[in-house]
Design goal:
The chain is built from five helices and six strands. By secondary structure, it is α/β, with parallel strands linked by helices. It has one domain: 3-Layer(aba) Sandwich (Rossmann fold). Strands 1, 2, 3, 4, 5 and 6 form a six-stranded parallel β-sheet that branches. α1 runs parallel beside α2 and α3 packs across α5.
Amino acid sequence: MSDGPFRRVLVPIANEEDARVTGKAVAGRFDDATLIPIYVVEKAGGAPDAAGVEQREEFAETLFKIFEAVIDDPTLTIEPTVGYGTDVAATILEVADDERADTIVFVPRSESRWRQLLTGDVARKLINRTDRPVLILPGDRDE
C-alpha cells in the first residue's frame, strides 16, 4: 500500500476516449495505490433500459482493458467495478463508500453547457455531494 494519503482511488470512466485520457492522466501520479475504475450502468428508473445490462457490462470490460493498458504500472493494483443506478453521481459516491475510496479522481469531459443543464453535471454533483477529496486532473498532456 501507498504511504501517501490516497491508497484507494476511485476513477469514473464513461467511454473509450475517457478511459484512454483518464488512464494517461492518472498514470504516474500514485505510488503503490489501488485504482478502482468505475463504469456506471445508468438505469432508466422504471422504464426499460435502452441497452441490455449484459451489453453495458461488456462495454465496461472494454473500457477497463483500455484503462489498464494505458496505466501499465506493475506497482499499482487495478480493481475495476461496475455500478448500477439512476443517478450517475450518486452511484459513484455509493461505490466510493463501498470501496472505502480515499479520493475520487477524474478528467472533466467536454460537454456543452446546454447538455450539462439538461442532464445534470455529474462532475458538479460529485464535488458538491462528497465527503472525500475529489481530484480533477488535466486531460491529454500530449495535446
